[in-house]
Design a protein that fits this description.
This protein has about 130 residues and is mainly α. It has three helices and no strands.
Amino acid sequence: MGWRDGCEARPEAAEGAHAVVFDFAAADMLGHRLHVLRRSARAHLAARADAAVLLTDWTGAHRATFDAERAAHERALAGNDLDVELRRLRAAWDEAARAQARANRSAAQSDPSPHRPVRDSVPTRP
């Protein structure tokens, strides 16, 4: 499962259509990296939860410091907002894709090209 699952398809700018200002390649690279980072954070949180069982018998002067630092790391991993950022990136991707599709349709409707039949003004019989 990739970061773009469920996103709009990336349309290329059609001939005669203006290209939407959105760097799809950079967004794709960023989305992939955020997705990998999110998976890694989740894996680390799961591993920490599994390892917590092993720490129950540990006592000593450094245990409180360790627990506090560990809790801070877990809060950072859990509260990293990667899901929020991925949702924002997906929304921006989808909006840019829809805008490009609209520009392509507009160009196709306003530009009679040789491959499209041009209607003449001669009335047709019913």
